[in-house]
Design brief:
Elements lengths: L1 E4 L6 E4 L10 E3 L6 E3 L3 E2 L21 E5 L8 E4 L3 E7 L9 E2 L11 E7 L5 E7 L6 E3 L2 E2 L5 E3 L5 E4 L2 E7 L4
Parallel strand pairs: 8-9
Antiparallel strand pairs: 1-2, 3-4, 5-14, 6-7, 6-16, 8-10, 10-11, 11-14, 12-13, 12-15, 15-16
Length: 174
């Protein structure tokens, strides 16, 4: 069971996530009857499944990578994500990790975002995105991720860190 909160009337509901249809885009709040767009946005930390909000999007992707879109500061790259916590940010001598991005984008922190990959009860990978207390914040599908907020990624989600855009690609589509 997950907890959801209507963004219109703030009523809290409990929903069995296994009963949510895969293609659902919206549903009506049982209290105020307003349409609610569907996505999985978790509260404080990836291990804390309380405080789930339904905002926009679709069901979580099963696995993936981050495709770095090229711009004047950053060449095209592909960041493969592994199970556990992946800290993604600007590459420097101090951060020679496989999730470091080759860039001259100074608005990107060296440890800008975290993506935690965990198996669900069916054994499928779920990717949890959060801002890693970066100075310049993180955009997720054109909206800022709030401090402490965690978002479940789905195929095609767009993330912007600094002036660099990333696209989440599920393992099925890699």
């Amino acid at each position: 069971m997950i907890s959801i909160r209507c963004p219109h009337c703030q009523v809290g509901l409990k929903v069995d996530e296994n009963k949510i249809p895969a293609n659902i885009q919206t549903f009506k709040c049982p209290k105020c009857k307003s349409p609610i767009e569907v996505a999985f946005v978790l509260g404080n930390k990836p291990e804390d499944d309380s405080e789930t909000l339904v905002l926009s999007g679709a069901k979580p992707a099963t696995a993936g990578s981050l495709h770095v879109l090229p711009n004047d500061l950053t060449p095209e790259q592909n960041i493969l994500l592994s199970e556990g916590v992946n800290i993604v940010g600007r590459k420097s001598a101090a951060t020679p990790s496989p999730t470091a991005i080759e860039t001259t984008d100074k608005l990107m922190s060296r440890a800008h975002i975290g993506v935690e990959v965990r198996k669900d009860e069916k054994g499928e990978n779920i990717h949890y995105l959060y801002d890693n207390k970066s100075k310049n914040r993180t955009l997720y599908n054109s909206r800022y991720i709030e401090p402490g907020e965690v978002v479940v990624l789905k195929n095609g989600d767009e993330i912007q860190i600094g002036q660099t855009r990333l696209v989440f690609v599920s393992e099925k589509d890699c």
